[in-house]
Amino acid sequence: MGQVSGTRFALTGATLIAISFGLARFAFGLFVPQIRADLEISANTIGVIAALPLMSFVFISLMAPLVTKYFGASTEQ
Length: 77
Description:
The structure is a single chain. The chain has helices at residues 6-39, 43-71. The chain is an all-alpha fold. The longest helix has 34 residues, at 6-39.
């Protein structure tokens, strides 16, 4: 197997993340009416719950370069 460029690796990872987030949001959306009825929560609350995974992903994506710069990249294989 040949060497994979960093750009291709990043694009492949971003594609996989987009697909998994899309499927998870779609599946969650199917259950929202039942969840709201069972837990008796408002539309605003369920919206915040639905947004938390994306917000955490964006936060970690912004923090990852800083953490990597501080701790350094692992070179073990």
